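Structure representation.

___
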Amino acid sequence: MQRGDIVIVRFPFTDLSGSKRRPAVVLAVYSPDVVVAFISSVVPTVPEKSDVMLQPTIADFAATGLKVPSVIRLRKLATLEQNLITRRMGRLSSGLLTAVDEALLLALDIDANRMVAREYKQLLAILQNQGETAVITYIRSKR
């Protein structure tokens, strides 16, 4: 199980009145748990900014294992035990996973530009005070 896998899981209703067996994309694995996002075959006519559309016309669609047009709803997340996953259907391509990352930032109202600006300032200060080698060491430590 890894980030980007599309799996079948019993996804809970938001009011916890029950659950429904449905596809979801794995966003993070924290054994024994996983964080997943809901996938629906009910495609909205006007997607939300936090939705990622999965259409059969895109080149990477077949690898998802989905059979019909679908939408990843990044505002519908759950943390579940891995043993609730019944099977793996497919996988998102790196391009689709990047789209998921961008939509997740929007869904959680995270300002990535502010984070990048802060990192840039840190790198600039390291460069000015300690030189290029220190910047390279810092970047490698972040990986």
Notes: The beta strands are 5-12, 19-30, 33-40, 51-54, 70-81, 85-91.
